[in-house]
Amino acid sequence: MKNITDSFVSVGHWPSVGSFELNTDILATNPINLSVVLGVLIFFGKGVCASCVFQERKQRILSTIRNSEELRRGAIEQLEKARARLRKVEVEADEYRTNGYSEIEQEKVNLINATCDSLKRLENFKNETLFFEQQRAINQVRQQVLQQALQRALGTLNNCLNSELHFRTISVNIGILGSVEERTD
Question: Chief subcellular site (predicted)?
Answer without folding.
Answer: membrane
